[in-house]
C-alpha cells in the first residue's frame, strides 16, 4: 500500500469523480484508476462503486476513507513539524470569505493579526459561498468565513456571531419618521435584493416568506454597495447586514431595525475536518474569534 494510492482514493471520494480527482492529483485518469484497483485488490474489498453519473463509496470505502485521511494527515503533520513549523509565527495561510463579509470583517482582523505576527503572510480570496466551500473541501483554503447554513459533512463549522439585517432606506423616506416598521410595511415598498449568486439574497427571501411577505423586487444587484447606492437614490428599500451598515458614513441612507421577529444571519468559520491546522492558522482563528466577541 502506497501513500499516493491513499491520496488518489481520498481525492476521488471527495471530488466524487475520477476525472476531477486525476486533475487535482496531476495524474492521468487511467493511472489513477489503476492504482485504486490495485488498492482494492490488496484490501480484498471494493471501495468505490462506479456509477453512470459519478461514484459512491461502498461500506468498506466509507470506513477506509476515514482511516486514509488520518494517515495522510499524520504524514503531512510530520512534514510540517520537521520543516515549516520550526518558527510557528512564520508561514503562509490562505483565508476565503464571501463578499458580504470580507470587506467589513477582515480588514481589522488582518491588521491586528499582522501586528502580532509580522512574519506571517495571509492570502485573502474573496468569492461566493459555493467557491469558498469548494476551496475548503479541496484544500486550497486553510479557512473559510461564510454565513450559515453550511451543509458539508467534510467541514468543521464553528459559528462566530449572529448579526441583524437592518432595513436600509433613503434618509427622507416616510419610514424614517415611523416608530415601528413591520414586514407588512416593507412588502408594499419597491425592494432592492442581492441576486442569486449571494446567499444573503436567498436568506432575505427566506425570511420574507416565513413572514408571509413577498417583497416587490425592483432591482437585483450583484454587489452590496450597489444596493446601498440604489437605496440612497430612493429606488427602494433593502435589508443590509449590520456590519455593512455600521461602516456606512453616507447621510443619504439610514438604517432601522424591524419590529417583531428580526431578520438575522450567522457568520461562521469552516475548514476541512481532515486538514492539518498549523499553529499559525490556529492563531488566526483565535484572532478572529476575539474580534467577533464585540458582535455577540
Write the layout of secondary structure elements.
Layout: H1 3-15, H2 18-25, H3 29-43, E1 48-51, E2 54-57, H4 59-82, E3 91-97, H5 102-116, E4 120-126, H6 129-138, E5 143-147, E6 155-170, H7 183-187, E7 190-194, H8 199-210, E8 216-221, H9 224-232, E9 238-241, H10 242-246, E10 253-256, E11 264-272, H11 279-292
Parallel strand pairs: 3-4, 3-5, 7-8
Antiparallel strand pairs: 1-2, 5-11, 6-9, 6-10, 6-11
Helix pairs in contact: 1-2, 1-3, 1-4, 5-11
Summarize the structure.
It is built from eleven helices and eleven strands. The chain is an alpha/beta fold and 296 residues long.
Can you characterise this structure?
This protein folds into 3 domains: 3-82, Winged helix-like DNA-binding domain superfamily/Winged helix DNA-binding domain (Arc Repressor Mutant, subunit A), CATH 1.10.10.10; 88-161 and 266-295, 3-Layer(aba) Sandwich (D-Maltodextrin-Binding Protein, domain 2); 162-265, D-Maltodextrin-Binding Protein, domain 2, CATH 3.40.190. Helices cover 44% and strands 24% of the residues. It is built from 11 helices and 11 strands. The strands form 3 sheets. Strands 3, 4, 5, 6, 9, 10 and 11 form a 7-stranded mixed beta sheet that branches. A two-stranded antiparallel sheet has the order 1-2. Strands 7-8 form a two-stranded parallel sheet. The termini are far apart.
